[in-house]
Design brief:
This protein has 247 residues and is an alpha+beta fold. It is built from five helices and 13 strands.
Length: 247
């Protein structure tokens, strides 16, 4: 949806991080409240959560969610929904990559795992109902299991009001273990944040933890969302996250 793109805001944000993100303070190793930008949230979803929702990975033993339909896998206010018709999305469609009519799929609803993603081939093989989750990577690409507009929902709040470490980007998020969800990556453009704004830049640091555990640590999400590929995500505030400094 090109109408949702604000070039002026994008330019202002880029200029801010370029100008204000130089130098900065060191951060001590410890556990912090952390606010992840939509970009960082999308990177973690892509690294482990989205692959874990694939029916193929579930039935071949490559998903931590296997056998857990109906179980609590996230905070009680957290939902992860694929809505192919959401007006904010760029992957809106009426049919998936195999010509199946699409529908809204609640993968996680109020913290409870509800569904997995299937294309026709995988659904037939494992005697499951297809979910019209086939996507194509290009005009000549074969269909594969994916998602259309994956939306993260949670309790909206002013997530920068209280002191936290703001993380704009994660360097190496793709190195997270997609099976276990364990990760340890470098922070890019981190800031100390409070009173609704970014304050002092942080010189360097790493963040480590488990992506699936993070789903239980979401304290709130921003009212604003950002569309990144096939995800529509807010900024999120997390509690009790390990940050590793130089000291």
């Amino acid at each position: 949806n090109l109408d949702s793109i604000d070039p002026e805001k994008i330019g202002e944000e880029s200029a801010f991080f370029a100008a204000k993100g130089q130098g900065g303070e060191e951060i001590e190793t410890g556990r912090y409240d952390v606010v992840l930008s939509p970009l960082a949230v999308s990177q973690l979803l892509d690294a482990a959560v989205i692959p874990a929702l694939s029916g193929r990975n579930v039935h071949t033993g490559r998903s931590v969610f296997a056998g857990r339909i109906g179980e609590t896998v996230a905070g009680e206010n957290i939902s992860l929904i694929d809505d192919p018709m959401d007006s904010r999305g760029v992957a809106n469609c009426a049919w998936d990559g195999e010509g199946m009519p699409v529908r809204t799929i609640p993968f996680i609803e109020h913290g409870v795992l509800q569904s997995f993603a299937y294309d026709l081939r995988t659904a037939y093989r494992y005697d499951q109902k297809p979910t019209a989750s086939a996507v194509r990577t290009g005009q000549s690409g074969a269909p594969a299991i994916g998602n259309h507009n994956l939306i993260l929902k949670g309790p909206e709040s002013d997530i920068l009001d209280e002191k936290a470490v703001f993380v704009h980007d994660l360097i190496g998020a793709h190195t997270a273990n997609p099976m276990s969800g364990d990760f340890s990556v470098e922070l890019s453009s981190p800031f100390f944040a409070s009173e609704g704004a970014l304050q002092e830049p942080i010189r360097t640091g790493m963040i480590s933890g488990n992506i699936f555990d993070i789903l239980h640590k979401i304290q709130g999400v921003s009212k604003e969302t950002r569309t990144l590929g096939s995800t529509i995500v807010p900024s999120v505030r997390l509690s009790d996250i390990t940050i590793i400094g130089r000291g």
